Amino acid sequence: MARYQGCPIPDTDGDGVNDEVDKCVTLPGPASNQGCPIIPDEVKKRVDIAANNILFVTGSYKLLPKSYTGLNEVIKILQQNPQMKLAIDGHTDNVGSDEMNQTLSDNRAGAVKSYFTSKGIDESRITSAGHGETMPIADNKTAAGRQKNRRVEMKLSYYK
Asked: What is the pTM of this model?
């Protein structure tokens, strides 16, 4: 390529994905995953189980102690994989005002992030966002549906 004046195209981690399109320049991974390592399904499942067991005081963003076991499992995964990042997304049902639900979901995602940082996970590795009632996964017309919609989701990646 002319822009490299005859020199090899940079590929710092030697994974065959050129640095200019590699989202993980220092970690080898397949082109199908933008040059980043693939997170094993078993690890994703452990994070999903932890997320499904994040519980709060009703109408509050105070974490219930029974949430800690799963959150501590995610902390171990992050400690074992120091280049991994975590996105935390908070969601609510449609009970109450849009504004109240947005604030509650922001605060709940933030509470989970604060738990991780209080246990030594660097804040730069974690993003948190609340989505209020805008992304339901079930019907808000039933109690069971509303319960499913009140959730925190966590997703691991090697890039933001």
From this structure: 0.90
- Domain 39-157 adopts which CATH fold? 60s Ribosomal Protein L30; Chain: A; (3.30.1330)
Domain ranges of the chain: 1-35, 39-157
Mean pLDDT along residues 74-95: 97
Question: What is the dihedral angle through the alpha carbons of 134, 68, 58, 125, rounded to the nearest 10 degrees?
Answer: -30
Summarize pLDDT for 37-63 with one digit per residue, the tens.
999 999 999 999 999 999 999 889 999
Tokens of 156: 């691991």
Q: Which of 74, 70, 90, 77 shows the shortest CA–CA distance to 134?
A: 90
How far, in Å, CA of 101 to CA of 94, rounded? Answer: 7
